[in-house]
Amino acid sequence: MQMPDPDQTILARREEIANHLRTIVPGEGVVVSPQELRVYESDGLTAYRQPPLLAILPETAQQVSEILAYCHAEGIKVVPRGSGTSLSGGALPLADGILLCMGKFNRVLDVDYDNRCVVVQPGVTNLGITKAVEQDSFYYAPDPSSQIACSIGGNVAENAGGVHCLKYGLTTNNLLGIEMVLIDGSILRFGGKHLDSPGYDLLGLMTGSEGLLGVVTEVTVRILPKPETARALLLGFPSSEQAGDCVAAIISEGIIPGGMEMMDKPAIEAAEAFVQAGYPLDVEALLIVELDGPQAEVDHLIGRVSEISGNCGAQTSRTSQNEEERQLFWAGRKAAFPAIGRLSPDYYCMDGTIPRNKLPHVLRRMREMSTDYGLRVANVFHAGDGNLHPLIMYDANNPGELERAEDFGSDILRLCVEVGGVLTGEHGVGVEKRDLMSEMFTEIDLKQQLRVKCAFDSKALLNPGKVFPELHRCAELGRMHIHKGKLPFPDIPRF
């Protein structure tokens, strides 16, 4: 994994840059100590580490504007960072870049029940939004497993999902507006409390842009009233293929559960030992299917799903009888990632998306790859929308195992594209999948995407080295070079 070579002139100006930034963010807002910078050297993709030139913690949008305007004028790279939970290396620092940390933007600014929305700063945690409105029986639907730690600004940057995204959508489906700062210091607003906006969908463009186009300083999200009833089923199957077939069968019957998650045997055993959620240990695959809505509808759908799962070979079926039991079912699923730490000293969490009907085939191929690479893999994923999260287990202390794990992960992502899926469902591209983008996109596709980047950041100062496998200068993207006022090949007809 290669990152842009550090600019030695910027490294030599470190103290000068720090002193100027202290005039914008006084006090302890600029971090330069090597020991203190160790906190910021990595994000959730801990295999890669790189201390930044320095870190800065602004508290206002105006401070962010002044920081970016200064960096734009001086040619200094900037990496935006929320809570640092990115699993794709999206917030990996640069040796010659400023790490712009948004953790102090942590206030809920407005709760508007009439318009069913909340305005928050980007450092507010995902779960914090629900906590702000749950006393009035409302909640924020997207709920990544890291929701206790991940910030809403990071959710916007990566278009995060969660266990309930099948029915209620990803971040983009629940986002109403943002305030953001461009690299030249301009402060813009896209969307707002209104339902829709005229013109180009710039809000959609910014969602999932991974910090390459601007820095979000305020977020307006949709909140929903809690369903009248919500119950979850635990369905155990003798094989992952049968569980995958059940997923497709439920959706094909026109049933859209609030959430539908799948775990294979290694993940089941680890989660049960960690949380003691009551998961069956004599099955090869487990589905958690949540149904919500009016009680009569939920009762009816539970019967239909039970029947479908029986026809698909389910050997165990258990339905939550109260809210505590439903939450316990989900607690095991949401703790699956840390629980894998009980099985292996290190693991590599992947993220790819496939068509639902390809689940059985992809699971078979992953088992074959696991044998070929000599590495165990546990599978935890959002089965309803085909978003896979294979957890490849390895020991970084054993020479070559990290590299094998990365190669294994790359082959899984190539398989996702091969069967009609995509490289990422919610974790983003970052540095992890950057060099696989050509597996999915042609050079023309990538250059068109890069032209959008150039329209917002012509100097490529925002989060460089991420997403695009080859960093072209904006001037190289089809612009004609004119030397001393003369066009090249002036005799060629121009149109």
From TrEMBL:
InterPro entries: FAD-bd_oxidored_4_C, FAD-bd_PCMH, FAD-bd_PCMH-like_sf, FAD-bd_PCMH_sub2, FAD-linked_Oxase-like_C, FAD-linked_OxidoTrans_Type4, Oxid_FAD_bind_N, Vanillyl_alc_oxidase_C-sub2
Matches recorded under Pfam families: FAD-oxidase_C, FAD_binding_4
Cofactor(s) recorded in Swiss-Prot or TrEMBL: FAD
Signal peptide extent: none
Domain spans labelled FAD-binding PCMH-type: 48-226
Superkingdom per UniProt: Bacteria
Cross-referenced Gene3D superfamilies: 3.30.465.10, 3.30.70.2740, Vanillyl-alcohol Oxidase, Chain A, domain 4
Keywords: FAD, Flavoprotein, Oxidoreductase
PROSITE patterns: FAD_PCMH (PS51387)
Protein's name in the database: FAD-binding protein
